[in-house]
Amino acid sequence: MKKQMARACMGAALTALLAATPVHATPITWNLSGVTFDDGTRATGSFTIDWASKTWTGFDVATQDGKLPALEYTPGNSGLYFNGAGPNSFSIIDSPAHRYITFAFDQALLTPGAYAINSAYSWDCNNCGTYRRITSGSVMSLSPSVSVPEPSSLALVLPAIGLIGLVRRKRKHATPPSA
């Protein structure tokens, strides 16, 4: 009976441990690289986002004067909003909500590296009456960031580890059956 209970506890602990897949808050800073508009002007700058949780911690993106006047998008004058042009995109919209720039990608920016900007869904516009499309460019992570486990993952993992330790301790101190 004790062996069955121990096995059940071990199975439950192992299941809880495996079910506690780690969720990481991984803000990554991305640098715009070679971002060019259809009028020959460029966008430069960077942004720091955690794509998995759809949160941002900062951005500074500047556009050059061309079809549209030059503008620097910062948290002081703009906001960043995810899924502006699809699931792998975000838009930075200025505070009067007249001007915005949208960046789209073929995949989510979940891991450090380099990702091409999807030019079919990326643009800079003024109320979208006057706009310019992004024709080329990419983003590159400036440096890999350290993953920080979410508290909910730790809350599942720690009890599972405790149960495994308890079962092992009971097994170690159990008396062998007499013959």
Strand content: 35-45%
Q: Element order, helices and strands? A: HEEEEEEEEEEEEH
What is the general shape?
Answer: elongated
Q: For this structure, what is the CATH class of the largest domain? A: Mainly Beta
Share in helix: 10-25%
Stated plainly, the CATH topology of the largest domain is called AttH-like fold
Structural class: alpha+beta
Largest sheet: 10 strands, antiparallel
Number of strands: 12
In the CATH hierarchy, what is the architecture of the largest domain at level 2?
Beta Barrel
* Global mean pLDDT: 81
How many angstroms does the end-to-end distance come to? 17 Å
Described by its quaternary structure, the protein is single chain
Instruction: Give the domain tally.
Output: 2
Low-confidence runs: 16-23
Cα-based radius of gyration, to the nearest Å: 25 Å
Number of helical stretches of at least 4 residues = 2
